[in-house]
Structure prediction request, 238 residues.
Amino acid sequence: MRFIDNFNLLALSDTLISVATAFVLGSIIGFERQYRQRTAGLRTNALVAVGATVFVDLAGRINGNAGTTQVIAYVVSGVGFLGAGAIMKDGMNIQGLNTAATLWGSAAVGACAGAGLGAEALVAAAFVLSANTLLRPVANVLSRMPIDEMSSEMTYQMCIITSMDEQKHALTSMEQLLDVAKYPIGDIEVEAFGDEDVEIKVTLMSTSVDADDLDRIIAHLSAKPYVSQAFWNPVTSE
Prediction:
């Protein structure tokens, strides 16, 4: 009986239009992600948009504008947990931030559609797509520009390859050189490198460095008989 009492053909039609709008727009956003072989692709973005729409539309049907506002707030935080699952950390590199942000955008599109704001949903989807397509060439150009070590905010690593027997000696030498150059160490990782050697990765806490300083430290380390390789590199994240 409750189903019959709540059945409203006009309201159902409105829900169908909202969900269909979210499905189409979420699929368009997801298609771009799927085309670029991202973790959250066509189906994920479509489902996020549709799910957000259904929850917001349901809240509006039950409790009016107050319910809609409350559920939108929960959608914003809830999709944040879903996005966190798409973010992966590999050492100092972080991947999936853009995918997580896209899922958040898809939820915003769905929330607009669920609130009956179809035009606003279309605008939101257009800007999410623009961020992932039109801004991509700009980001690629910026990524290829030479790095100004003194003004950029990046994480830097220094790596040395040494024998297992000499790893403590090699690490001590690196720490002393960095201490003299006044570059504090944030993290140290030691990994096997072949059968007899290890690779020591030292992450610097300073985000701004002088490349000449790091080159001099590397030159000193390379001259040590117990160091077979030494190099430094900036660590970027997506």
